[in-house]
Give the backbone structure.
Amino acid sequence: MFDERSPIYRQIAAQIRADVLSGTLQADEQIMSTTQYAAYYRINPATAAKAFQELVDEGVLYKRRGIGMFVGPDAREALRSEHRRRFFTDVVDPMVAEALAIGIPIEDVIRRITHAADEQISGSTVGETES
Amino acid sequence: MTPQPGSWAIARHRLRLDTAAVVVLWIPFTLVVAAIYVLVGLYGNLSTSVWEQATQAPRWFAGGLGVYLTAVYLPLYITHGQTRRQFATQMPAFVVVLAALLAALITIGFAVERVVYDLGGWLQALERAHLFDGVDQYPVVLLEFWLVFMVWIAAGALVGAAFYRRPGLGLLLVPVVLAIVAAAELAVGTAFFGPFPEPLLTAAGVGLEARPIPVAVITCFTLAVVTAGLTWLVIRDLPIRSQAA
Amino acid sequence: MTMSIEVRDLELRYGNVTALDRLSFRLDGGKIHGLLGRNGSGKTSLLSVMAAFRRATSGDAWIDGQPVFENPDVASDICFIRGEGDTVVHDWPADRVKDALAFASTFRPAWDSDYATALVDRFRLPLKKRLGQLSRGQRSALGITLGLASRAPLTMFDESYLGMDAPSRYVFYDELLADFMAHPRTFVISTHLIEEVSSLFEEVVIIDEGQLVLHESAEELRARGAAVTGPTEQVARFAQGLTILGDKQLGPTRSVMVYGELDDGQIELARESGLELGPIALQDLFVHLTESRGRTS
């Protein structure tokens, strides 16, 4: 269900982006209509429409008149590039800052990263680690 | 705009519901009166019309119906999307018809009593003055009670609206409404309810005989119209209170 | 058919008490609007004026551009369900559930009997029972049935779920949404159960002490506040110059609720200062907006 403390349309949009990224939603697949979203989550259909509009503007969704909303053919790739772009600024840099602040040697961090990557690659049965 | 409920919807609605109520209540009422006949006949002497006395109760019923019209039904019509003006326009027509219905029932009662008294050999004497000299003047009987019931219903509606608007206003209008009803009764004969007993009237020099029919008709119609006008003043911007209050 | 609402300089006074104080706003047709306000804020008075139950002391209300008071062209298109519904409870002997439905059926032009029957079944209302014998929750459910089945182009509910348990309230929200999507009309819902109902709203109007506090889209309102938490010094410095709705201190930690969207620069600054940013619930925003009206920030 939705966290009542932030705009619902943002949460819907974030959920759709995550589903596209993970492959749960395929390219050119139709998503639930605003009516279905509204009934299922008990929200105003305009809220779902707002989320869709944002995603259309981003190029993640496109609209087929009279039919519904569909996942863009290049949506997944576009989202991945965006995530990749922000991964270093949003995830790595803050991690480095925190490590330095707590006093962890950077070599220890690097060693841990490599170790974790080995573990996850050998342990996982699904998933691509290479783009 | 979406289509409206149909013209005169309020009047038709009330006619449907209230005539049914009248007919349903009339049966027990006549049964009670019949019981009184039996009692008086067994233990006393039937020398006057019992039905004449019995016409007291229907007057109060008419007054009560008037109170219900404004104090109970008007707010319902407003909360269901009608206007106060629509109500005020349609109610006179409804009141005229309902008063005629009640008057007809009374007249039929007199006729039935006449037959019963003839069979029993009793005298169907009238104790008060009326527009009619004898009970067999059925059109006049009908007219008298039609006039009287119209004014009683209108008077009830006025005081009901006033009390709904503000209890203080209601109290203020109680003497006014009593005076209106008394005037109508005096026009058709004698007022024979509480506040105006006959000795007082005689002392005041008010004649106890009925007025000429045209005078009675004009008086009662004027009273009804004036009462309706006063009621309109009370209801035309009537705030509708919440029932939960 | 949907109806827009406009209110201009609306005033309602009862003797010395001013219930509505020069209210002005405009609501688009075809949307679900939320009307929020504390007890005594004027919600019921406002809706009563909009429904022509009362006449304003001054100022006007228009429905679809037409004045609303005593206007037969729009009167039957407006359905206002106040509390448990103003229906046939005093109309003995015609005071049963089925009588209430029959009354509405006669006077609501767009009344849908089948829909009403379905709702009565869903809420499990006994048709033959007298209104006076229904529980409060059942009375509310009847009011909701009357409002929804009326299909009135402007339908307003004023705290119409009192006494209803949570499952029944969710039936109401589901039915409201479903019917709104199938048969669009304008809804105005007043409530104090903000967190439960607010996801239904497209726009929100907040009034307090008879005055308009705010009117905007529900989603924009949700984005309009942030809770800033961290060491007291940093928080104080960050919050300088911002509109503060509330303030909490616990040990060395301070949490401040600010009103107004934070731009990217501020978000960056917060992160650098080691401050945590979180959203505020609509309910909290509402509480603070109506609490702080006495003091300017």
